[in-house]
Amino acid sequence: MPATLALDSRVLAAAEDLPLLANTIVEGFLDGLHRSPFLGYSTEFSAYRAYTQGDNLRHIDWKVWARTDELYVKQFEDDTNLRCQIYLDTSASMDFGGTDANKFLYGRLLAAALAQLMVKQRDAPGLILFGAESRQAVPAQATRHQAIEILTLLAQTRAAGGTVIGQDLFGLVQTFTRRGLAVVISDFFTADDTVLELLRQLHAQRQEILVFQLLAPDELDLPFEGEFIMEDSETSAEVVVQADDFRAEYRRRLETFCERIRRECITLEADYQRVRTDQPLDQAMIAYLERRMAV
User: Fold this and answer.
1) What's the CA gap between 225 and 152, in Å, rounded?
2) Rounded-to-5 percentages of helix, strand, coil across the chain
3) What are the start-end ranges of the E strands in the chain?
4) Which residue among 31, 42, 102, 232 has its CA within the 20 to 30 Å range from the CA of 118?
5) Cβ atoms of residues 114 and 129 within 8 Å
6) Is the pLDDT of residue 104 over 50?
7) Better-scored residue on pLDDT, 162 or 22
8) In contact, 84 and 209? CB cutoff 8 Å
């Protein structure tokens, strides 16, 4: 694993230049892939497809026709670009975890690295932020400046407010009529099923879906001792908890919660990845590449 993938989040939190940081991570990641036989990975995605009436005759490969007596059209890189919408949860619950495992810092960097990687693959990334409000921050485009625009905005984005997913976001999803890839980065902590409803809307629009559920180590392990106060970061509701008595039940409920999300993803034919925010980014990026090549 390239050392750049295990950067301490204290460095990430202090970094002013998120574009430079994301580029460093992606370059290290690609260098690691090129030194290993990962799925025959290549940054070139040009291919052939069967000729259909109306295709430009100049794009027919006549050498292939001479060998096979079949007409095939050359697909160039611009023809095989994939539209990839990155959905990043910016609600207050994402701003949790120690400095070296903060969910929002991790999710923001994951979104930045994926956008940089998509541009290098000549795909068309876009960025959608959802939390207290939803907006298409950067429309999906395949331009060489696209990553800089997305990464610059991510560097300025902060987590705050509740998770409110309404008709503004659903209406936006319904405009994506062309089949593409949707990458959803969230902890899925909402008072209702709104984030799951987002996945259902994406599935209805025939989008391929890749889900990253981010959870901080403290959320997964509940390492606290004695009596402490648990506060909902979005509603400010407080509950007094005796850690030793509550730990087993808490873990059971959390596992049930995550399993429900995983099963919903299976129903929607979405890839589900649960990610601890103290794990290197390469696992999440490899999951993206596997889905990218499946598409």
Assistant:
1) 40
2) 45, 20, 35
3) 47-50, 72-75, 83-89, 124-130, 134-138, 181-186, 208-215, 227-231, 238-242, 271-276
4) 102
5) no
6) yes
7) 22
8) no
Query: Tell me: the pLDDT tens digits for 10-55?
Result: 445 444 567 777 888 888 777 776 555 444 444 443 456 677 776 7
Sign of the dihedral defined by the CA atoms of residues 254, 262, 180, 23, in that order: positive
Please give the model's pTM, rounded to 2 decimal places: 0.76
Cα(108)–Cα(114) distance, integer angstroms: 10
- CA–CA distance from 290 to each of 206, 235, 249 (Å)? 19, 37, 35
In this structure, what token pair is assigned to residue 17? 């230049």
pLDDT tens, position by position, 206-223: 999 999 999 999 899 877
- Residue 99 is given by DSSP the state T
Helix (H, G, I), strand (E, B) or coil at 227: strand
